[in-house]
Design brief:
By secondary structure, this protein is an alpha/beta fold. The protein is built from five helices and 40 strands.
Length: 368
């Protein structure tokens, strides 16, 4: 990869200062051992200051802010929105991991499978009966795709991914290592009322029913993933019982996320690492769930809501609401509770002093 600053500036929609014919072959952090072929990324003020303090001035850099802030770098591209520029820049220099053109000789493609034009299907892949793989699909080695599954055009599926029978995945999907999509949902019942049902209905603090015989509820409805969805490594998305589990267009899912049976996730959501969504929950459009957020079954979260990391969502959340804590509460309320808890030690000390004074006063009254 050899690009001129003029070419890069056009992609970033940045302001080019200096010699646009200067070419670079890689991007580097100010803390890296960069050289004259590096484009140094110093869009944060502290990184830019680090470059200035080091006195090792790069030949070329991407920066933000006023021109004067970076005038010690002769050739630079000034951008307005650093994170957007980072997305465009990394895409420009990204080098996909290569997979064999065509279908590897050790891959198994079962009867009735339809493979679109220009496939790259790696070693030891299994493509089940009557599957449909779209054009330009890149399927890395050791991927399992079950019978009747549909994979859209331009999908990239990394090693270790398991896609269950009947799963439907839209175009431009990216599915990272060891994700499992389309396993049976975690759904069971007992012949008589079980311990969980009894606890919910009674509100008691004591267990009054017992799970002596646990019977499986089978999953009949496939997972449906819409276009432009990215799914992180070791994420699990379960089939629905009768209605499909769905993930909306443009949603991005991090690693180790669990999406239970019958869940509906809207469009352009962001689900961070460790999120767990229990069965039949409904997640609106553009919802953001921070790391390790837990969502109870049958909960409804409105459009554009946000949950801070490690929130425990036990009830419905209104649209455009920011919540945090366990149980999750509106952020302002949760913050007040946290601050009050932080003041508790001093409050307890004062109470103990007051109790001691009250006891002394009572003793004085008794003497009199």
């Amino acid at each position: 990869m050899n690009l001129s600053l003029k070419e890069i500036s056009a992609v970033l929609d940045g302001k080019l200062i200096g010699d646009g014919t200067v070419s670079v072959t890689k991007v580097s952090s100010p803390s890296d051992n960069f050289d004259d072929s590096s484009l140094v990324v110093a869009m944060d003020k502290k990184f830019l200051q680090a470059v200035k303090d080091s006195r090792k001035i790069p030949v070329a850099a991407v920066v933000s802010g006023n021109e004067e802030d970076s005038d010690f770098i002769a050739n630079r591209i000034i951008v307005k929105r650093p994170r957007l520029a980072m997305a465009l820049l990394t895409k420009l220099f990204f080098k996909p991991v290569s997979v064999i053109d065509g279908i590897h000789k050790t891959a198994v493609v079962e009867e009735g499978a339809k493979i679109g034009d220009n496939p790259s299907i790696g070693a030891l892949c299994y493509i089940g009966k009557n599957t449909c793989i779209g054009e330009n699909a890149v399927i890395h080695p050791q991927v399992y795709i079950g019978e009747g599954a549909v994979i859209g055009d331009n999908a990239t599926i990394y090693s270790g991914v398991r896609i269950g029978a009947g799963t439907k995945i839209g175009g431009n999907a990216i599915i990272h290592f060891n994700a499992a999509i389309g396993a049976d949902g975690f759904s069971f019942v007992t012949p008589m009322e079980g311990s969980v049902e009894a606890a919910k209905s009674s509100g008691s603090t004591n267990v009054s029913a017992f799970n002596n015989n646990i019977i499986k509820i089978y999953s009949l409805a496939p997972v449906v993933i819409e276009d432009d969805v990215e799914i992180g490594p070791c994420t699990n998305i379960d089939m629905g019982t009768i209605s499909s589990t769905r993930v909306g267009k443009g949603t991005k899912i991090c690693s180790n996320v669990q999406i239970g049976h019958n869940v509906a996730v809207g469009e352009n959501c962001i689900l961070c690492g460790g999120v767990g969504i229990a069965g039949s929950a409904k997640i609106g459009n553009r919802v953001v769930l921070g790391g390790a957020v837990g969502v109870a079954d049958h909960v409804i979260i409105g459009d554009d809501a946000m949950a801070m990391a490690m929130s425990g969502i036990a009830g419905n959340i209104a649209s455009k609401t920011i919540v945090s804590g366990v149980p999750a509460l509106p952020r302002e309320t949760a913050n007040k509770i946290v601050f009050a808890m932080m003041r508790m030690p001093k409050t307890m000390e004062k109470l103990q002093e007051l109790f001691a004074k009250a006891e002394d006063f009572e003793k004085m009254l008794e003497k009199n």
